[in-house]
Design brief:
Blueprint: H1 2-26, E1 46-60, E2 64-77, E3 80-82, E4 85-91, E5 94-106, E6 114-129, E7 135-152, E8 158-166, E9 174-182
Antiparallel strand pairs: 1-2, 1-9, 2-3, 2-4, 3-5, 4-5, 5-6, 6-7, 7-8, 8-9
Protein backbone atom coordinates (compact mmCIF):
# COMPACT_ATOMS: atom_id res chain seq x y z
CA UNK A 1 0.00 0.00 0.00
CA UNK A 2 2.84 2.43 0.77
CA UNK A 3 4.25 1.89 -2.70
CA UNK A 4 0.98 3.11 -4.24
CA UNK A 5 0.96 6.23 -2.04
CA UNK A 6 4.48 7.16 -3.15
CA UNK A 7 3.31 7.39 -6.75
CA UNK A 8 0.59 10.00 -6.17
CA UNK A 9 2.93 13.07 -6.26
CA UNK A 10 4.80 11.65 -9.25
CA UNK A 11 1.54 10.89 -11.05
CA UNK A 12 0.31 14.45 -10.47
CA UNK A 13 3.60 15.93 -11.76
CA UNK A 14 3.66 13.86 -14.94
CA UNK A 15 -0.05 14.49 -15.57
CA UNK A 16 0.54 18.23 -15.27
CA UNK A 17 3.43 18.00 -17.73
CA UNK A 18 1.38 15.84 -20.11
CA UNK A 19 -1.61 18.19 -20.17
CA UNK A 20 0.45 21.41 -20.17
CA UNK A 21 2.63 20.46 -23.16
CA UNK A 22 -0.10 20.89 -25.84
CA UNK A 23 -1.08 24.26 -24.33
CA UNK A 24 2.53 25.46 -24.38
CA UNK A 25 2.96 24.17 -27.93
CA UNK A 26 -0.06 26.20 -29.09
CA UNK A 27 1.39 29.42 -27.73
CA UNK A 28 4.32 29.37 -30.15
CA UNK A 29 4.01 31.39 -33.35
CA UNK A 30 5.21 30.54 -36.80
CA UNK A 31 5.56 32.64 -39.92
CA UNK A 32 5.57 29.66 -42.25
CA UNK A 33 2.34 28.77 -44.08
CA UNK A 34 3.43 25.31 -45.20
CA UNK A 35 4.16 22.31 -43.03
CA UNK A 36 6.60 19.57 -43.90
CA UNK A 37 6.14 16.22 -42.26
CA UNK A 38 9.37 14.28 -42.10
CA UNK A 39 8.26 11.53 -39.69
CA UNK A 40 11.69 11.81 -38.19
CA UNK A 41 12.60 11.24 -34.61
CA UNK A 42 11.98 14.81 -33.54
CA UNK A 43 10.14 17.92 -34.48
CA UNK A 44 6.51 18.92 -34.74
CA UNK A 45 4.87 16.71 -37.35
CA UNK A 46 1.69 16.38 -35.30
CA UNK A 47 -0.28 13.49 -33.88
CA UNK A 48 -1.02 10.75 -36.38
CA UNK A 49 0.03 7.28 -37.49
CA UNK A 50 3.81 7.12 -38.00
CA UNK A 51 4.36 3.38 -37.61
CA UNK A 52 4.40 0.53 -35.16
CA UNK A 53 6.92 -1.73 -33.50
CA UNK A 54 7.69 -4.90 -31.59
CA UNK A 55 9.40 -5.19 -28.20
CA UNK A 56 10.75 -8.02 -26.02
CA UNK A 57 12.54 -8.15 -22.69
CA UNK A 58 12.58 -9.23 -19.08
CA UNK A 59 11.34 -7.84 -15.80
CA UNK A 60 12.11 -8.09 -12.10
CA UNK A 61 9.46 -8.55 -9.38
CA UNK A 62 7.66 -10.29 -10.98
CA UNK A 63 10.47 -12.15 -12.74
CA UNK A 64 9.02 -12.47 -16.22
CA UNK A 65 9.77 -12.40 -19.90
CA UNK A 66 7.53 -10.14 -21.93
CA UNK A 67 6.67 -9.17 -25.46
CA UNK A 68 4.48 -6.52 -26.95
CA UNK A 69 3.76 -3.86 -29.52
CA UNK A 70 3.97 -0.09 -29.59
CA UNK A 71 2.39 2.48 -31.88
CA UNK A 72 4.26 5.59 -33.01
CA UNK A 73 1.53 8.22 -33.06
CA UNK A 74 3.57 11.35 -33.65
CA UNK A 75 4.69 14.47 -31.82
CA UNK A 76 2.32 16.85 -30.06
CA UNK A 77 5.06 19.32 -29.06
CA UNK A 78 8.65 19.84 -30.13
CA UNK A 79 10.56 16.63 -29.33
CA UNK A 80 7.62 15.25 -27.27
CA UNK A 81 6.08 12.12 -28.77
CA UNK A 82 3.13 9.89 -28.00
CA UNK A 83 3.82 6.13 -28.15
CA UNK A 84 1.22 3.82 -26.53
CA UNK A 85 2.34 0.26 -25.72
CA UNK A 86 0.70 -3.07 -24.93
CA UNK A 87 2.85 -5.81 -23.35
CA UNK A 88 2.18 -9.28 -21.98
CA UNK A 89 4.51 -10.95 -19.47
CA UNK A 90 4.75 -14.58 -18.34
CA UNK A 91 6.47 -16.08 -15.31
CA UNK A 92 6.58 -16.03 -11.51
CA UNK A 93 3.15 -17.76 -11.40
CA UNK A 94 1.36 -14.83 -13.00
CA UNK A 95 0.41 -13.39 -16.37
CA UNK A 96 0.55 -9.61 -16.63
CA UNK A 97 -0.99 -7.55 -19.42
CA UNK A 98 0.08 -3.90 -19.32
CA UNK A 99 -1.28 -1.12 -21.55
CA UNK A 100 0.40 2.29 -21.23
CA UNK A 101 -0.11 5.64 -22.92
CA UNK A 102 3.55 6.70 -23.01
CA UNK A 103 4.89 10.21 -23.57
CA UNK A 104 8.62 10.62 -24.32
CA UNK A 105 10.91 13.60 -24.56
CA UNK A 106 13.46 12.83 -27.30
CA UNK A 107 16.82 14.60 -27.10
CA UNK A 108 16.90 15.44 -30.81
CA UNK A 109 20.25 17.26 -30.81
CA UNK A 110 22.07 13.94 -30.47
CA UNK A 111 22.83 12.58 -33.94
CA UNK A 112 23.21 8.76 -33.92
CA UNK A 113 21.88 7.27 -30.66
CA UNK A 114 19.02 9.52 -29.52
CA UNK A 115 18.26 9.25 -25.78
CA UNK A 116 14.73 9.72 -24.48
CA UNK A 117 12.96 9.86 -21.11
CA UNK A 118 9.30 9.70 -20.32
CA UNK A 119 6.38 8.33 -18.40
CA UNK A 120 3.31 6.26 -19.01
CA UNK A 121 -0.13 5.93 -17.48
CA UNK A 122 -2.42 2.99 -18.15
CA UNK A 123 -3.88 -0.27 -16.87
CA UNK A 124 -2.55 -3.61 -15.65
CA UNK A 125 -4.46 -6.87 -15.70
CA UNK A 126 -2.80 -9.61 -13.65
CA UNK A 127 -3.88 -13.25 -13.41
CA UNK A 128 -2.02 -15.13 -10.66
CA UNK A 129 -1.79 -18.52 -9.01
CA UNK A 130 0.18 -19.19 -5.82
CA UNK A 131 1.78 -22.40 -4.49
CA UNK A 132 -1.34 -23.31 -2.45
CA UNK A 133 -3.54 -23.53 -5.59
CA UNK A 134 -5.16 -20.18 -4.79
CA UNK A 135 -5.70 -18.03 -7.84
CA UNK A 136 -7.16 -14.69 -8.73
CA UNK A 137 -7.02 -11.70 -11.00
CA UNK A 138 -6.91 -7.97 -10.58
CA UNK A 139 -7.05 -4.82 -12.71
CA UNK A 140 -5.40 -1.63 -11.53
CA UNK A 141 -3.89 1.66 -12.67
CA UNK A 142 -0.34 1.38 -13.96
CA UNK A 143 2.27 4.12 -13.85
CA UNK A 144 5.84 3.83 -15.12
CA UNK A 145 8.89 5.97 -15.79
CA UNK A 146 11.17 5.06 -18.66
CA UNK A 147 14.30 5.96 -20.51
CA UNK A 148 16.19 4.59 -23.43
CA UNK A 149 18.18 5.18 -26.59
CA UNK A 150 17.26 4.57 -30.22
CA UNK A 151 18.98 4.69 -33.58
CA UNK A 152 17.88 4.58 -37.19
CA UNK A 153 18.93 1.41 -39.07
CA UNK A 154 19.95 1.25 -42.75
CA UNK A 155 16.63 -0.46 -43.54
CA UNK A 156 14.74 2.63 -42.35
CA UNK A 157 13.46 0.95 -39.20
CA UNK A 158 14.49 2.09 -35.71
CA UNK A 159 16.17 -0.03 -33.02
CA UNK A 160 15.75 0.88 -29.35
CA UNK A 161 17.03 -0.20 -25.94
CA UNK A 162 14.76 0.75 -23.03
CA UNK A 163 14.43 0.50 -19.26
CA UNK A 164 11.25 1.06 -17.24
CA UNK A 165 10.56 1.51 -13.54
CA UNK A 166 7.05 0.65 -12.32
CA UNK A 167 5.27 2.44 -9.49
CA UNK A 168 1.96 0.55 -9.18
CA UNK A 169 1.27 -2.46 -6.95
CA UNK A 170 1.28 -4.92 -9.88
CA UNK A 171 3.80 -3.05 -12.05
CA UNK A 172 7.15 -4.81 -12.44
CA UNK A 173 9.78 -3.04 -10.34
CA UNK A 174 12.10 -2.87 -13.36
CA UNK A 175 11.89 -3.81 -17.04
CA UNK A 176 14.68 -4.00 -19.59
CA UNK A 177 13.95 -4.57 -23.25
CA UNK A 178 14.77 -4.00 -26.88
CA UNK A 179 12.47 -3.06 -29.71
CA UNK A 180 12.12 -2.26 -33.38
CA UNK A 181 9.87 0.34 -35.03
CA UNK A 182 8.60 0.09 -38.61
CA UNK A 183 6.71 2.54 -40.84
Amino acid sequence: MQRGLRTVPLLIAVSALFFASPVLAQSTTSTSTTTTSTSGSSGMSGIGWQGWGLRVGGSANPDQIYGGVHFNLGYFARDVRFRPTVEIGFGDDETLIQALAEVHYVFSKVQVWKPYVGGGLGLNYVDWKDDDDHSGSDTEVSFAGMGGVETKLHSGSTFMIEGKVGFGDHDPDFKFGVGWSFK
